[in-house]
Automatic annotation (TrEMBL):
SUPFAM superfamilies recorded: POZ domain (SSF54695), TRAF domain-like (SSF49599)
Domain BTB stretches: 127-234
Pathway where this protein functions: Protein modification; protein ubiquitination
Organism (species): Eragrostis curvula
Protein name: BTB domain-containing protein
Length: 297
């Protein structure tokens, strides 16, 4: 619910709004089933509440997977309408309720990505390329989607598409990427979201692996998503490994966050005692020297 004011007295001047609520999953993405938006413009100078009484039932919330430690997150999108004079269907009435009539046609937010995800990722329609990897059961994918998302796949798949029999499956082999990481990368390429990963070292290892894969296949958005995830998981035990990955793949902001953490008072000594620091010292000696020089500055 959105409350117009506890006192019940309307403000001197307000703008009408459109608003919507979305339940967020553990990865911070809206759940389409539990996303609701107003079908008309609402005036906020009325002493009443706005919202959806049937937004979600308690049992549906428990079954959604969005409830963790008795907590859940709801995102509110609020759009303030300032130019009502040009709004089609406006009621030209200067009474106290603002004289706002709903537009004759309300266009909902684009749901193209939901349709593509359902058709291509969940139902696996249109698959025309098989990806072989380390004797695993090969995933079968959609050639044009891989090419659209990654310039590496574009160079690999599109020239061959002109020569191949369009009814036959194309087979390519991928090396140097863990199969679990590659599956998570495909999920992001299809849905533009990260797979939910449990907290702890597993989440860090997956984000590091995904960052390396994103760098390999030139998936810049996925690379940034992984950098953001790793920035939130920097601590004494993880910072050396994260810093090594950042240095190897040119992630300047992630590297700066790691260096800033290490050079905080008391952190350097603790980090130097970790196994990850010894590996980083061997793989990235220049970074170690940079940290030392910053400490001496």
């Amino acid at each position: 619910m959105i409350d117009h004011g506890a006192s019940g007295s309307p403000p001197a001047h307000v703008h009408p709004v459109e608003f919507g609520f979305s339940l967020l999953d553990q990865a911070g993405n809206p759940v389409p089933k539990f996303t609701r938006a107003t079908a008309k413009v609402c005036s906020f100078n009325q002493s009443r509440r706005q919202g959806f009484a049937d937004f979600i039932r308690h049992k549906d919330l428990e079954a959604s997977g969005c409830l963790k430690d008795d907590k859940f997150t709801v995102m509110c999108d609020l759009t303030v309408v300032r130019n009502l004079n040009h709004w089609p269907g406006r009621n030209i009435d200067n009474d106290d309720d603002g004289g706002v009539a709903p537009p004759p046609v309300v266009v909902p937010p684009s749901d193209l990505h939901h349709h593509l995800t359902d058709l291509l990722w969940k139902k696996k329609e249109g698959k025309d390329v098989t990806i072989s990897q380390q004797d695993r059961v090969p995933p079968v994918c959609v050639r044009w989607l891989l090419a659209a998302r990654s310039p590496v796949f574009e160079a690999e798949l599109l020239p061959a598409a002109k020569k191949d029999n369009k009814s036959a499956l194309r087979r390519i082999e991928i090396r140097g990427v863990d199969p679990h990481v590659f599956k998570a990368m495909l999920h992001c390429m299809y849905t533009d979201t990260l797979l939910p990963v449990t907290e702890g070292t597993g989440a860090v290892a997956m984000a590091e692996g995904l960052l390396e894969a994103a760098h390999m296949f030139k998936l810049e958005r996925l690379k940034l998503m992984c950098e953001e995830t790793l920035c939130k998981r920097i601590d004494v035990g993880t910072v050396a490994g994260i810093l090594a990955v950042a240095e190897q793949h040119g992630c300047r902001d992630l590297k700066a966050a790691c260096v800033e953490f290490i050079t905080r008072p008391g952190n350097l000594k603790a980090v130097m005692e970790t196994e990850g620091f010894q590996k980083m010292k061997a793989a990235c000696p220049g970074v170690v020297m940079e940290i030392v020089m910053k400490q001496l500055a």
